[in-house]
Design a protein that fits this description.
By secondary structure, this protein is an alpha/beta fold. It has 9 helices and 8 strands. The chain has 2 domains: about 5-15 and about 85-220, Rossmann fold, CATH 3.40.50.1000; about 15-80. It has helices spanning about 15-30, 40-45, 50-60, 65-80, 95-100, 115-125, 145-155, 170-180, 210-220, and strands spanning about 5, 15, 90, 105-110, 135, 165-170, 185, 205. Pathway: Organic acid metabolism; glycolate biosynthesis; glycolate from 2-phosphoglycolate: step 1/1.
């Protein structure tokens, strides 16, 4: 079965504000106040919790990896509490996935967000049922850009990796698609915007309304 696999953060949903809020909760707990800005530091948010912690600590005298390790569980707990406070699906995302499924495609999620958090978020956003499988950062011993999570996502949805594509928004997604030997589509509305075209994906996606036709073009 033809399969379309989606990254989550920055691809299906803009999660940056809630991610930054979780990091700032850590810094407030340490007495530093809010060290990250939800707008200016959105791109760092999509590189994960540890990246946000390192950025914050770099602004108060330097990065201490022991402090990053200590605060990471605190960040995850804070994020779990407010996981859908500001997060919204990108316009047309749910409708595009529904159209793909109606056209006979399998759909899946492959994310570097911990699986439990990803399951919770998709459920709260009301769209978990639109995806045949969900593979997170801790589902397997490896994570993207290793191709194993991607391949597991495709197979978990009942698809054929040789007839699949990855929709993403970062260099990690581009590297994952290359490692898996599949076409990569990068969104122009993610954290890096249209500049992500520098990674030379097989296609760019400017709006979700165009995805069904794009998938048909790439997968035949």
């Amino acid at each position: 079965m033809k399969t379309v696999v989606f990254d989550l953060d920055g691809t299906l949903a803009d999660t940056s504000a809630d991610l930054v809020a979780a990091a700032n909760a850590c810094f407030r707990g340490l007495g530093h106040g809010d060290l990250l800005d939800p707008m200016a530091d959105a791109l760092t948010a999509f590189h994960g919790g540890r990246a946000m912690l390192r950025l914050g600590f770099s602004r108060i005298g330097g990065v201490d990896e022991a402090a990053v390790d200590a605060q990471y569980p605190v960040l995850l707990a804070a994020y779990a509490e407010g996981i859908d406070t500001h997060t919204r699906l990108y316009p047309g995302a749910a409708e595009a996935v529904e159209a793909l499924r109606a056209a006979g495609y399998a759909t899946a999620i492959c994310t570097n967000k911990p699986e439990g958090l990803a399951e919770t978020l998709m459920t709260r956003l009301g769209v978990r049922g639109l995806f045949g499988s969900l593979i997170g950062a801790d589902t397997l011993p490896v994570r993207k850009p290793d191709p194993a999570p991607y391949l597991a996502a495709v197979r978990g949805a009942g698809g054929d990796p040789g007839r699949s594509i990855l929709i993403g928004d970062t260099e990690t997604d581009r590297k994952t698609a290359t490692a898996a030997g599949v076409p990569c589509v990068l969104v122009s509305f993610g954290p890096e915007g249209p500049a992500i075209a520098r990674l030379a994906p097989e296609a760019m996606l400017d709006r979700y309304a165009d995805l069904p036709a794009l998938a048909a073009w790439l997968l035949g």
